[in-house]
Amino acid sequence: MTGQDSDDAVPAPPWERSRRRSAQVRVPLTRERIVDAAFTVLDREGYDRLSMRQVAGELGVAVSALYAHVAGKNDLFQLMYMRLFDSWVLPEPDPERWQEQVKDFARFGRARLLEHRDMARISMAQIPFLPELLPQVERMMALFRGAGLPDPVAAAAGDMLSTFIDGFAYAEAMWEERRRNTDVGSWDEMRETIKGYFDALPPERFPHLLALSSMMFEETNDERFEVGLDIIVRGLASYIEPKDA
Amino acid sequence: MTGQDSDDAVPAPPWERSRRRSAQVRVPLTRERIVDAAFTVLDREGYDRLSMRQVAGELGVAVSALYAHVAGKNDLFQLMYMRLFDSWVLPEPDPERWQEQVKDFARFGRARLLEHRDMARISMAQIPFLPELLPQVERMMALFRGAGLPDPVAAAAGDMLSTFIDGFAYAEAMWEERRRNTDVGSWDEMRETIKGYFDALPPERFPHLLALSSMMFEETNDERFEVGLDIIVRGLASYIEPKDA
DNA sequence: CCAGGGGGCAGAACAGTGTTCAGCAGAAGC
DNA sequence: GCTTCTGCTGAACACTGTTCTGCCCCCTGG
Q: How many angstroms separate the CA atoms of A151 and B209, rounded?
């Protein structure tokens, strides 16, 4: 869009450089600014073209300058992951509404991931036990244990839910990329193509696939996400012995 | 281990080359041999060092030779994914034992992924609707529908289970890589380190994490996988209205 | 007000990467 | 025997993450 001032950046002539240097406040490089730039590049170029050089270019800075603030690309990814989730305030656990709270938790996580293109690919490779994110994990565990889940189930449920959210968003990013590479215009067009592929299958060999193809591709991602969420929450609920019965 | 004949491969002198060419049968390059070599490199070097040049080197061949048989690195990954799962024969669906069948399905998938180092990272990026794998998907859907799951749930269950298997194996590979990079000797040592980290947390701020830390890290991966599996299967079962009641 | 450190950045370099392309050796066919 | 054609080689292009040396500028001490 507005890549005009960052693309063919002719270096400023020497007699201007000192003026420019003193004119602009020479905003110092910080981890925060680097992470900002990384998100900008990610959203514009996608995961595959997110490189240290691109980030440096976005900031108008040499590549090597980044390494004074960031240990490396992996470290940058970790910072992006933290940026995405450290402002996440989970609600006070309410045992009466735990199912809806768990679902809201998952919805929020997916929404955050989808805010930035290909973010799930970065998130997937991160380990959710960074010190900065422990309060969130703690809240989640409080939610599960408060609901009355047995400890082994509560412990597994966290992993499970994170995996589901990440994996689902990852798959969404995957399809989105495939659509982009196929030069198919809209999502509806893409869905039509896929559905056509399935409907052309020999019915005697793939009866169930044909029966389900509408379910798999006519529903929106949101609907499919909700179904998956419901499966998990129902599974969790089955471990809670009813108090009054 | 036995990298002696592939490491510093001195090129054969010219007077030997024609003899070598006629002596060995000059086994032709095929997609199968390329995939074999890719698995060899993957197991020995890991995902990050799996490059086209390494695969070519493993075969004693120039890099560009690969591109006559394989469209690119992504295509090679797809072939590896297919190789892993196309010999997979799912059992005839038995509605009486569907829960155990679903679990066996998941166990087999995870076991296959763990056969090769970092394989989950490759598998994750693949889309399970390759033509060669449709019979497996069909069988899986037959399993779900035969069990009596409503169609939307059956459709979501496949995605869900694949995501769980891939995501779980991915996380396992992640921890394994982290262990390798930390130069921690054994897994037990690693677990001890992590458990020490959690046990050092302030108890008043992270009571639930502390209570669950033993669950999360003393259990083996197999046990945690089984718990996750049980959550999903129970969730699915909750959609089946009991026939006799 | 000026000299001297020191931190932060630039530039170049290293060792890789995926992918493409012109060219050549050898086997297959006539 | 000659030609065609396939399948491989070698080199090249445009990148990548990371490191190292050196320089410039700002802040400090005098």
A: 11
pTM assigned to the model: 0.88
Per-residue pLDDT of chain B (245 residues; tens, 9 = 90+): 333 333 333 334 333 444 333 334 567 899 999 999 999 999 999 999 999 999 999 999 999 999 999 999 999 999 999 999 999 989 999 999 999 999 999 999 999 999 999 999 999 999 988 999 999 999 999 999 999 999 999 999 999 999 999 999 999 999 999 888 887 878 888 888 888 888 899 999 999 999 998 888 788 899 999 999 999 999 999 999 776 54
Say which CATH superfamily domain A3-70 falls into: Homeodomain-like (1.10.10.60)
Across all strands, nucleotide nearest A62 (CA–C1'): C10
Q: Are B216 and A216 in contact (CB under 8 A)?
A: no
* Nearest chain B alpha carbon to A219: B152
Cβ atoms of A237 and A149 within 8 Å: the answer is no
Would you kindly state where each structural domain of chain A is located, as residue ranges? 3-70, 88-237
B88-237 CATH fold: Tetracycline Repressor; domain 2 (1.10.357)
Residue numbers of B between 132 and 191 with CB closer than 8 Å to A: 134-135, 137-138, 141-142, 145, 151-157, 159-160, 163-164, 166-168, 170-171, 174-175, 178
| Residue-level length of chain A | 245
Amino acid at B78: Q
Q: Are A233 and A102 in contact (CB under 8 A)?
A: yes
Closest Cβ–Cβ partner in A208, A209, A228 for B160 = A228
